[in-house]
């Protein structure tokens, strides 16, 4: 009888065992009650599936601990995702050793500390010897385990955003401790000091320590040989010149300031002042050229690799696009930013394919498989503003999805679920492709988020699909971009930054390679045979600079109060040296 009860309570486990599945996802409204009945832990039967490579249990407010047996029962586990549960204050028993684990996501829990015996695993020998990505964001951690580097010596990405950390353990920056670490994010903590030993992170490329309590940035940071992107915004630095720079200058300028001895005094102060003055002169030149529109602007762009982003302020735009946000999205997917980009050239060769591929890559990487954020791109001519970002019940939300007929969200999700099940049967494993991979992100939601145009048509259903109405084609030159997230506003801005900079890079590539066009008859018919007018397309001049115009989009509440505008002065601040942003 007991075995029958377990089978009935956890049919997913019986199915996974019978079909020898390598991936398993446990989520949804019924999960919480079953975990509570199991004592706030995962059922022991789960740890009798030794073939599992991927395990996700998310959105379960009653899950306080994984439970004993995980390390012994799942030796081949590659990815373990335990997001948005109630794990904490520690992990008892500790997770490791998990010799094959590469991805560990414990974000959005209630972890306060990870001491030996209640943490990630042993240090000797390493409990997580193959771990590459560790996400501990959105917890309550007051300190990191001192032996983290010894437990996970091959770590490449460490996300600590949104905790209560006031310092890093010295062992983290010991020479050779984490030789592969390339991304370190610890925004929205209480960090008071950054050790000069951070220079020992030889592979560090991205560092985000925004919104902490740092008063100084060590000059040694400039000695990190591969560092490309830094974010120290929101810290009250003693050196006010440096504080101003971190809010608006490129990473290269900030590192040069540190390298020549900035921080308001001491060695190299004269050179630092000179560097700051040169930066100020450069910005004045750009502002002057923007007002006058003279030949000097094109010369500067050529020197910068023929890549120019011009930001059009809402005050300069006779008809700016706006997005109003309904309060009900707060409990579903509260964050959204938008932007209008004009001047894309998607007609030649594989330009459109490269553009769509770049979105897929952003979804996989920066958007963390759409779990952190989702982006969508639209043909601007088909977008009727103002837009409304709201949440609707699945049976009320209607959309014409890309490549499909009109359907209610409830019907669409059901159809995708059936297709996913068919995929699993054909491939004899639980992994699926396409939109089917993201269905679990809707689990537990009574309402679904959507973006509605002035005609009342739903043009976006994040994180699943866009509408056929605003589909981007080869003939598209002006686009509306949106990024939504259930996690944070900053990740929306980061994704938007990355998307726009990628679009600038693609326009440059298209200009330089001069591919032959391959416009299809179907796509030509879709826009009544009208091709973009070179007079209105800033990228049309083959011998001119590759120019994109980025128009600000305001996001307002229903009363008209401003929530966010993108791009603001702080956005697009980490553009690479060959991209010139004119504001």
TrEMBL record:
InterPro entries, A to Z? B3/B4_tRNA-bd, Leu-rich_rpt, Leu-rich_rpt_4, Leu-rich_rpt_typical-subtyp, LRR_dom_sf, Phe-tRNA-ligase_IIc_bsu, Phe-tRNA_synthase-like_B3/B4
**SMART domains recorded:** B3_4, LRR_BAC, LRR_TYP
Name the source's superkingdom.
Eukaryota
Instruction: Note the coiled coil stretches, chain numbering.
Output: 402-433
Q: Residues annotated as region Disordered?
A: 260-300, 514-544
Give any GO molecular function from the UniProt entry. phenylalanine-tRNA ligase activity
Keyword hit for Amino-acid biosynthesis: no
Question: What PROSITE patterns does the record point to?
Answer: LRR (PS51450)
A Gene Ontology biological process in which this protein takes part is: phenylalanyl-tRNA aminoacylation
- Residue limits of the B3/B4 tRNA-binding domain? 332-508
Q: Please note every region of biased composition (Basic and acidic residues).
A: 270-281
Tagged with keyword Repeat: yes
**Keywords on record:** Coiled coil, Leucine-rich repeat, Phosphoprotein, Repeat
According to UniProt, the name of this protein is: Leucine-rich repeat-containing protein 47
């Amino acid at each position: 009888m007991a075995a029958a009860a377990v089978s009935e309570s956890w049919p997913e486990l019986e199915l996974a065992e019978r079909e020898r599945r390598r991936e398993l996802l446990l989520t949804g409204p019924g999960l919480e009650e079953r975990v509570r009945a199991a004592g706030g832990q995962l059922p022991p039967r789960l740890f009798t599936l030794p073939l599992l490579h991927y395990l996700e249990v998310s959105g379960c407010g009653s899950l306080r601990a994984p439970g004993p047996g995980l390390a012994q029962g799942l030796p081949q586990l590659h990815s373990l995702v335990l997001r948005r549960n109630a794990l904490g204050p520690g992990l008892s028993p500790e997770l490791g050793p998990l010799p094959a684990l590469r991805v560990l996501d414990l974000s959005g829990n209630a972890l306060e500390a990870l001491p030996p015996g209640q943490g990630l695993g042993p240090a000797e020998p390493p409990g997580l010897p193959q771990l590459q990505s560790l996400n501990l964001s959105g917890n309550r951690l007051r300190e990191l385990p001192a032996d983290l580097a010894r437990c996970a010596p091959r770590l490449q990405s460490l996300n600590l955003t949104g905790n209560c950390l006031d310092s890093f353990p010295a062992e983290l920056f010991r020479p050779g401790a984490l030789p592969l670490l390339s991304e370190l994010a610890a925004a929205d903590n209480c960090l008071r000091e950054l050790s000069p030993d951070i220079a020992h992170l030889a592979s560090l490329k991205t560092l985000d320590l925004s919104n902490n309590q740092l008063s100084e940035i060590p000059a040694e940071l400039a000695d990190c040989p591969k560092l490309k992107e830094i974010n120290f915004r929101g810290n009250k630095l003693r050196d006010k010149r440096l504080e101003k720079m971190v809010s608006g200058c490129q990473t290269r300028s900030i590192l040069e300031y540190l390298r020549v001895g900035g921080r308001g005094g001491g060695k190299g102060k004269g050179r630092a002042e000179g560097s700051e003055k040169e930066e100020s002169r450069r910005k004045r030149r750009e502002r002057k050229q923007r007002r006058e529109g003279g030949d000097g602007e094109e010369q500067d762009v050529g020197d910068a690799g023929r890549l120019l982003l011009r930001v059009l302020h809402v005050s300069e735009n006779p008809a700016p696009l706006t997005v109003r946000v309904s309060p009900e999205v707060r409990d579903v997917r509260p964050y959204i930013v938008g932007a209008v980009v004009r001047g894309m050239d998607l007609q030649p060769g594989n330009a459109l394919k490269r553009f769509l591929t770049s979105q897929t890559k952003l979804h996989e990487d920066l958007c963390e498989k759409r779990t952190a954020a989702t982006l969508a791109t639209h043909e601007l001519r088909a977008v009727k503003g103002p837009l409304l970002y709201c949440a609707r019940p699945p049976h009320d939300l209607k959309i014409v999805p890309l490549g499909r007929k009109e359907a209610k969200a409830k019907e669409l999700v059901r159809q995708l679920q059936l297709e996913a099940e068919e995929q699993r049967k054909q491939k004899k494993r639980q992994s699926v492709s396409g939109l089917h991979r993201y269905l679990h992100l809707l689990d537990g939601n009574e309402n679904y988020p959507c973006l509605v145009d002035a005609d009342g048509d739903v043009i976006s259903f994040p994180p699943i699909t866009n509408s056929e109405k605003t589909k981007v084609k080869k003939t598209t030159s002006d686009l509306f971009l949106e990024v939504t997230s259930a996690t944070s506003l900053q990740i929306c801005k980061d994704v938007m930054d990355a998307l726009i900079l990628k679009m600038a890079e693609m326009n440059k590539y298209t200009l330089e390679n001069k591919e032959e066009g391959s416009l299809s008859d179907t796509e030509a018919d879709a826009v009544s045979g009208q091709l973009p007018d070179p007079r209105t397309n800033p990228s049309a001049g083959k011998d001119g600079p590759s120019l994109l115009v980025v128009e600000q989009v305001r996001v307002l509440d229903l009363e008209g109060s401003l929530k966010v505008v993108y791009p603001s002065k702080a956005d697009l601040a980490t553009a690479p040296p060959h991209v010139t942003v004119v504001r």
